[in-house]
Each structure stands twice: as structure tokens, then as C-alpha cells.
Amino acid sequence: MLSHEDIDELISQAEQILARKLYPDNDVFIDVMNGLTGDAIVVFQRPPLAKKSLYSKDIVGQKAKRKNEAAVYRTFETSLNTVGLLARSQEDVMVRQRVYPIRNQKKNIGVVIVEDSVDEKMKHFLVAQNGIEQNRSHPISITSKEFVTDNIDEGILIFNATGYLVQMNRAAESYYHGFGYLDDILGMHYDNLSLDMSTFEQLNYLRSRNGGAGSMEKEIKFGNLYFEMKYIFDEVEGTVIVIIHEVTEVRKKEAEISDKAVVIKEIHHRVKNNLQSVVSILSIQARRCSTDEAKKVLTESVYRIMAIARTHELLSEQLEDDISLKAVLDSVIENMHRCYEDLYHITIEATIDEELILSSDVVVTIALVVNELIQNCYDHAFNGRKQGQINVDVSQKEGYVYISIEDNGVGYPKDDIKQNNLGLQIVTSYVREKLRGKLDVQSDSKGTKTAFYFKK
Predict the structure, then answer these.
(1) Mean pLDDT, 10 residues at a time, over the chain (456 residues)?
(2) Which residues lie across from 88 on neighbouring strands?
(3) 224: Cβ–Cβ under 8 A, 6 or more apart, which residues?
(4) What is the model's pLDDT at position 261?
């Protein structure tokens, strides 16, 4: 979006072109970039002062297409001058363009385009051609046919010591054709082909600053495309080899993954909030219940939902789907201790492997199982006891996870376990079916230990 200051600067540039009669023999234009569509739009046009225009009508307001005017888009994207590139005008006339950036507050806000007839040979183009002929008579040893191959996807450009392109492969030619270059780029100067803001002079300066290093690498963005660039310097011949590798699809996939991760985090956050709302409703309902049995059922449901909500809360704070089991179980234990705060004589000790990271589905399952077992200890293990101890132990060994919940309560005969106990059904089915693990329960007058293990 152009600011008022940007528009004032563009108007100033147009007024200077008119007042100072700049480029009297050329058609001159000013283009700006449409930030929404990414198209260059003509906003100023001045025909030649001393000769006939290459255009039969006013083209202000029309688009400059990338496939037709590579120089315009290159200068927009690199802020570098682009001189002598072939272009196709809005009236389907072949012209040569010189394009110069218009900058304001360190940003590119537009370009000045000076157009010549294709028949008029420009000085820089002749110099380039002479450079090619000179180098063809003095072959460069490292740029043999075996080195520059047409059978690889990377584009290869080889510039001589003065910065002119002397050799390239088909991939490089295809890249630049896609950028909208209509000329044969062989013989063009590096400054007309650079895809970032670097010039050949700057490239040589960076080479000297790198202590004579034989190569350097960087990643650039050109339009909507991403490229990994590698520059190889031959100190003997003075040549520069540029290898272009497109990574646009990789970066798009990374962006998609990042976007999806943000959406997933938001989903987990909303699920957590919704579960907390359910907890609040059930808690209110439990307080209004007239029977202890109904209140107990609702309260147990609250504990289970809180265990699930904590997992979603942690997932909403990270990008990965894997999660720390300790973080979730610590929260489950804290919730249990708070919910049974009137049973202050019962303490919980937990030893949980901090490095144990599991998928969110597995963590939710374990959280529910541990929640049921701890709740069972609070409800039944210490009847008639003045104090009690619950130990939670979680470890991993040789690809297996071992979890045990142990109390020093009154114990119970296994035959007395009610088969319609929902908590026991959750523990048994979740361990066997969801975790595909083994469950073992040992109980006597000294307490109860429930242990289970499963493969990671």
C-alpha cells in the first residue's frame, strides 16, 4: 500500500521527467505495484519529445505482464537497475527497456521505464557481445562441456571476470524464460541477471571479505519463488559460477505445515475452553444434586474431563503433537489433591520420567487411567485411617513404559470388585485396547498396587 509520502514522491519523479525533459528520444513510463494482485500498473506515460512514439495510444492504467516485461518485475523485486532487456509492450511491439527503481524511505515504491526501439543498438549490449567473442577465443578451462550439463535440474550460470554471462545450461535458460526474459541471456551482464539486490562489484567485494573462500551460499526470494543460490569462485580464471536451485515447493509445504499447526493449536485451545465450560456446568449440577450417588457420578465425570482438558491445554501451547507425559500427570495429580483437599491426611508422591514424550492420544489415555486409579485410592483405600500415602511411579526401559499407582491403605479382596464399576472398566479397557498393554493388580492388608506397561 502506497502512503501519501510515496504518492508525493512518484508525482515528483513524473514532474522532473516533464520539467527537465529527461530521455527526449524515448517513451518514458512510471509503473507501481498493485499490492493485492502483484501486477505492475502504468501510472505515468510521456512520449518522445523529438520523434514518433512506439505507442499509438495512452496506456496509463494498463498492466505490465511479467511474461512480457521481465525488467520491470526484476527491478521491483531487487531494487537494481535493469538495462537493455527485451520486452513486449501492451500493443504487442518488441522494445528494449531500461528500468530504474523509485525509492522512498528505504523501500521500492515504483519504477521508471525508458524504452527504445529494438532496432536501436545500445552501448551496453554491444559491450556484452564483444565480451562474449573475446571469451570464446579464450576458453575457460573449468567450464567444459563435462561441467555444464543439461541433465540436472539446477540452473548453472558462468560469468567471466568482467561479469558477463559466457555459458549456461538449459535449466538456467528455462528459469530466466520463466522470469519473463525474452532475449537470449547469453552475453548479459550479471547486474542484469541478479535475482537479489547484489551487483557483480558487490559479489567480488563479498568474495574478498570471505578471505578468499571458494564458495558461498544464501537463499533468496524472487517474486513468489524461493531459490537456494551457490556462488563458486575461480581465483585463477576470475570466473564466477552461480548454481540456482528452486525450493519454492519446499517452502510452500513448510508454510502450509506452519499454518496448519497454528490452526491445530487454536483448535486445541478451543477444545480446552469448551471442556472447561462442561466442567463448570457439571460442577454446578453436582452441587445441586439431592443424592450422594448422583453427586459422586457427576464429580467423577468432572475429574475425567479435567484430565483431558489439561492435555489439550498443553497441546495449544506447542506445535508438535507429541507431549510431555510428566506435564499432564503433574496436572492430574494437582487437580486430585485440590479436589480432595479436605482429606489433608493423604499425601501423593510422584516419580515421573521427565524425558518421556508420547503422542497426545496416548497421553490422554494414560491421564484418564491414572486419574481413575488415584481417585479410587482417595475414595476407598484409607477408610478408617488417620493418614495415607499414594505413590505414582512412571519410567521407561528398553522401549516400554512402566506405570504404577500404589497406596498403603486397607486393600481389598479381588473377588469383591464390582464388575459394573465404571472406573475399573475404563482402566481395564484403556490399558488393554488403547495402549495394548498388560495390567496387574496386587492388593492385601498393607495396600494396593496397580501397575501396567505398554510398548512405546
Answers:
(1) 92 94 94 90 95 94 93 91 90 92 92 85 45 46 48 86 91 90 89 89 80 79 90 85 91 77 72 82 82 81 80 73 86 82 83 91 88 88 86 94 93 63 78 92 90 93
(2) 94
(3) 38, 248
(4) 66
Contact in structure between 101 and 79 (CB atoms under 8 Å): yes
Residue 251: predicted pLDDT: 87
Q: Cell for 94?
A: 518488441
- Give the DSSP per-residue string, 358-411: EEHHHHHHHHHHHHHHHHHIIIIITTT-S-EEEEEEEEEETTEEEEEEEE-S--
H or E segment and range at residue 13: helix 4-19
Report pLDDT for 123: 41
Cell 484409607, residue?
A: 382
Burial code of 153-162, b = ≥16 C-beta within 10 A, e = fewer? ebbbbbbbbe
Q: Is 362 within 8 Å of 383 (Cβ atoms)?
A: no
Count Cβ atoms within 10 A of the Cβ of residue 388 and give its class: 0-12 exposed, 13-18 middle, 19 or more buried: buried
C-alpha span between 257 and 148 (Å, rounded): 36
Kindly state the helix (H) or strand (E) to which residue 299 belongs, with its residue range.
helix 292-315
DSSP state string for 117-128: ETTS--HHHHHH
The DSSP code for 240 is E
Element containing residue 133 per DSSP (H, E): helix 123-136
Instruction: Give the span between the Cα atoms of 194 and 84, in whole angstroms.
Output: 14
- Whether pTM > 0.85 for this model: the answer is no
DSSP state of 189: B
Name the strand (E) or helix (H) holding 203: helix 200-209
CA angle (192 as vertex; 191, 197 as ends), nearest 5: 55
DSSP 8-state class, residue 46: E
Give CA angle at 160 (155, 163), nearest 5°. 85
Return the CA Rg of the chain.
37
Cell of 326: 510428566
Cβ contacts of 86 within 8 Å, gap of 6 or more: 94, 95, 96, 97, 118, 181, 182, 183
Which cell goes with 321? 503433537
Residue 287 dihedral angles phi and psi, to the nearest 5°: -65, -25
C-alpha angle 428-429-435 in degrees, rounded to nearest 5: 100
d(CA 219, CA 228): 4
- Inter-residue contact 86 to 118 (CB < 8 Å): yes
C-alpha cell at 377: 485410592
Residue 286, amino acid? A
User: Are the beta carbons of 265 and 315 closer than 8 angstroms?
Assistant: yes
- Residue-level pLDDT at 145: 47
